[in-house]
Amino acid sequence: MAAPKGNQYTRKWSLEDYQKAMDSALEVATTDDQCFTVYAAVKDTGIPYSTLKKACEDYEVLAPIKKDIMDIIANRIASGAIQGKNAPAPSIFMLKNLGFSDKQEIKHTGDSDEPITFKGFGFKRLSD
Q1: Rg value, the chain, Cα
Q2: Is-contact 65 26, C-beta < 8 A?
Q3: Rounded to whole angstroms, how far apart are CA atoms 40 and 111?
Q4: What is the largest CA-CA distance in the chain?
Q5: Mean pLDDT for the chain?
Q6: pTM for this model (two decimals)
Q7: How high is the pLDDT of residue 127?
Q8: Would you say the C-alpha torsion 87, 93, 96, 97 has a positive or negative sign?
Q9: Mean per-residue pLDDT for 19-46?
């Protein structure tokens, strides 16, 4: 099946085109309270999401705009979850898709490979 007429699959986009699209996406992310994904922010820019994603990797000047979009969306998701507007599980899932993590890894650089044991840390019932 041939590609539809008028498609822009092979169009070469300029850095200026990318910057205009990312600025437009930033405006959408800032003003649209229902914008919960980067895809939603860029969908009406005229440039495919995958193309903009690749452009952000290729051009360092676009990275801060993408980070701003992601931060705005993450803040909207987290605030909505805290206020009870968004369900917690989907909010956590969306934040993980934006690069956040709900676990913390701690590396210990001790003198030996022996496991660390803590002494004197007992649990006591409140009634005792």
Answers
A1: 23
A2: yes
A3: 50
A4: 80
A5: 82
A6: 0.70
A7: 46
A8: negative
A9: 93
